[in-house]
Design goal:
With 330 residues, the protein is mainly α. It is 54% helix and 8% strand. Helix 9 links the parallel strand 4 and strand 5. The mean pLDDT is 95. The chain binds adenosine-5'-tetraphosphate. Adenosine-5'-tetraphosphate binds next to helix 1.
Length: 330
């Protein structure tokens, strides 16, 4: 059996980028009989930047319902909310105490977010990687699917696992990164050199899975392109069109080469119109299922059972770790 762990932060409206970059990969991984997948909703990570209390609660539940609406199978995947398993905080602290400020300050994501942050940089933003290490090491995960931007954090997790094992004796499995080169990286619709992010203050920059269908179609139709008029992939000179081609290809599984051929005599309007219709079909399908799950008490039962399994696994690991470190009386 291969244990895989993955998570998304409920830090905004889940976007097609989150779907194409993360959720779609889980849909593939769950097809393999050998895989056992733990999915957590990373609400503790979400509060490393400011969150509105009501919105956060809403986003947590929506994210859970969206995973199911996207096709996550509950016999293969166990879904839980990170803050409902306090072992994450417990091991997170121990990982923090084995991390050095210098190495945390060197993390690219910290440096990027620090630059963007206007209202104060929290200590949590700096100590995000030790908590992420805890999320993974608690469960002896074999494999962690990561985007290119997360490889540095996973390397930190591996370092922390080795550091702890060397200091206290064999305790943690050292996880492998699964960097899927085929996973699409999606860019902002208004500034196509920046990644599409669910927390982008401009909603025109992203398509949320729960966007009103007509609004989503409009966003595609008004996405920034260029004045050249030809539909071809050229990330450097035509980032907008290239991004739309990537989205089109990832949603339909038609290769970019075939799309270039299909649209070689078309204009941007026709191309965008077609993509808008594809997005419509895709979102309608997800939203229909979402509307079922968000209201059903099945969602709570799934999250309860995920939490119980996660707690069962994680609390055994925590007991072992506390013993090795010498904490408490037992
Ligand atoms: N633009 C993207 N293209 C492809 N994949 C993406 N992911 C995020 N943005 C893109 C993938 O989605 C998962 C979500 O990870 P996360 O919630 O931990 O945070 P993130 O990567 O920081 O995602 P966002 O949407 O940009 O959130 P905010 O705005 O809150 O920071 C990951 O697997 C990521 O690779």
């Amino acid at each position: 059996m291969t244990r895989i762990i993955t998570g998304i932060q409920p830090s905004g409206n889940i976007t097609i980028a989150n779907y194409l970059g993360a959720i779609k990969q889980i849909l593939e991984l769950q097809k393999d009989e050998q895989n056992e997948i733990l999915i957590f909703i990373a609400d503790l990570h979400a509060i490393t930047v400011n969150q509105d209390r009501i919105a956060l609660k809403k986003h947590i539940r929506e994210l859970a319902a969206l995973y199911l609406a996207c096709g996550i199978k509950t016999d293969k995947c166990h879904m839980f909310i990170q803050s409902e398993v306090p072992c994450h905080n417990q091991l997170g602290w121990i990982m923090e105490c084995n991390s050095y400020i210098g190495e945390l300050e060197r993390m690219t994501q910290f440096k990027d977010k620090k630059q963007k942050q206007t209202d104060g940089i929290t200590a949590g933003l700096l100590t995000y990687p030790p908590l992420m290490a805890a999320d993974i090491l608690l469960y002896d995960a074999d494999v962690v699917p990561v985007g290119e931007d997360q490889t540095q954090h996973l390397e930190m997790t591996r370092n922390l696992a080795n550091r702890f094992n060397n200091k206290y004796g064999e305790t943690f499995k050292v996880p492998e990164a699964l960097v899927n080169k085929n996973t699409a990286k999606i860019y902002s619709l208004v500034e196509p050199t920046l990644k599409m992010s669910k927390s982008d203050p401009n909603p025109k920059a992203y398509i949320a899975l729960l966007d009103d269908i007509n609004v989503a179609k409009k966003k595609i139709k008004s996405a920034i392109t260029d004045s050249e008029g030809s539909i071809r992939y050229d990330k450097e000179n035509k980032p907008g069109v290239s991004n739309l081609l990537t989205i089109y290809s990832a949603l339909t599984n038609i290769s970019i080469k075939d799309l270039e051929e299909k649209y070689k005599n078309s204009n941007y309007q026709q191309f965008k119109e077609d993509l808008a219709n594809i997005v419509e079909e895709f979102l309608t399908n997800i939203q229909n299922k979402f509307n079922y799950y968000i209201k059903s008490n099945e969602l709570d039962l799934i999250l309860n059972s995920g939490r119980d399994l996660a707690y069962h696994l994680a609390s055994r690991k925590i007991q072992k770790v506390y013993k090795k470190v010498g904490l408490g009386r037992n």
